[in-house]
Design goal:
This is Alkyl hydroperoxide reductase subunit F. With 323 residues, the protein is an alpha+beta fold. It is built from 6 helices and 16 strands. The protein folds into 3 domains: 76 residues; 92 residues, FAD/NAD(P)-binding domain, CATH 3.50.50; 108 residues, Phenol hydroxylase, C-terminal dimerisation domain (Glutaredoxin), CATH 3.40.30. A hairpin with a 5-residue loop joins β15 and β16.
């Protein structure tokens, strides 16, 4: 990889040469805010040549067959060795690994930054809950949830790299990372009768809702007075959200870090189109607890207040802090 000042290439586009021939492939993209291009090319493992402007010009001429592309200066150049490695543990005591410190892999698929941000968010809200008194097993769940994701990513990026070496690469659904789930997490608590549909540990789906005309939701004025809103609007932020469906009366007390929303004909939010019921498949009187990262934490019956409190003390809130 090299950042270079050059002439002969249009700065308005990326340039990709020898597509399908991994051994001779070269890419060159203009770096925004500079007059430089970044050049990437695959070298043999034993290639030890030092790239001066003249050497890189000759290298490009040989690879792309053009004599009009000339390198004038190289402010930065580096050799990058692709690896596929993962730390044996993400946590030892008070030391945690995340992102590139926990896993490295080929850049094929473009999932490195996404995965690192997911690591950081997963660990961040759990550390915050731990500081409020949540149980130690919440911090342990960070490795239990995120390491399998990195293992899958290593296999995916390596497979895509092999495909690219063969002259083609296909971005399939697994590259989109929309199917990441934590159903094997210790945080995933479900009801015995839930054999199908949405499961604890899966991504919470969105749904349109309508605010009851007699009041406003517990998320400020969203959905107040018959206004429509999206469920994802309620889930924004760093709090847990308890969605109580067709429950009568209080389920548990609200507190710092937990929002409670009553959905149903007698609730503050109405599922007029039935999308919430279809997506979550809750029976009247059931509740779903949504984690700060937008994943389903647990399903409960509304009358299981003690079980909900125990869950919150272990994994979520820790210290009961009333509004």
């Amino acid at each position: 990889m090299a950042d270079a000042s050059l002439s002969g290439l249009n700065r308005d586009i990326w340039h990709h040469f020898n597509d399908g021939d991994m051994a001779r492939m070269i890419t060159s993209c203009p770096l925004a805010g500079t007059q430089l291009f970044q050049i990437q090319a695959l070298l043999a493992p034993d290639d030890s040549q030092n790239f001066s402007a003249d050497v890189l010009t000759a290298f490009l001429t040989e690879r792309i067959g053009r004599t009009d592309v000339r390198i004038h200066s190289i402010p930065w150049v580096s050799k990058y060795q692709m690896n596929a490695r993962i730390a044996e543990h993400y946590r030892v005591g008070k030391v945690f690994l995340a992102g590139d410190a926990a896993h490295v892999h080929p850049p094929t698929g473009g999932q490195g930054l996404n995965t690192s941000i997911q690591d950081a968010y997963n660990l961040g809200w759990k550390m915050a809950a731990s500081l409020r008194g949540a149980g130690e097993e919440l911090l342990d769940s960070y490795e239990q949830e995120r390491r399998p994701v990195a293992e899958s990513l290593l296999h995916l990026s390596t497979r895509l790299l092999d495909s690219q070496k063969q002259g083609g690469i296909k971005r399939e659904r697994d590259v989109q990372q929309l199917d990441i789930q934590y159903t094997d997490s210790p945080l995933a608590h479900t009801l015995l009768e839930r054999q199908h549909g949405l499961q604890a540990g899966e991504r919470a789906p969105d749904a349109p809702l309508l605010g009851a005309s007699s009041g406003c939701s517990s998320f400020g004025l969203l959905g107040a007075g018959g206004q429509s809103l999206r469920l994802f609007q309620l889930l924004q932020g760093t709090d847990w959200n308890l969605l109580a469906y067709e429950t009568h009366g209080k389920v548990i007390d609200a507190r710092r870090g937990l929002r409670i929303h009553h959905i149903g004909e007698q609730g503050e939010l109405i599922d007029t189109l039935g999308h919430f019921r279809e997506s979550y498949q809750l029976a009247p009187g059931q509740c779903v607890l949504i984690r700060p990262d937008g994943y389903v934490g647990a399903f409960f019956h509304g009358k299981q207040s003690n079980d909900i409190e125990n869950y919150l003390s272990r994994f979520a809130i820790g210290i009961k802090d009333e509004y």
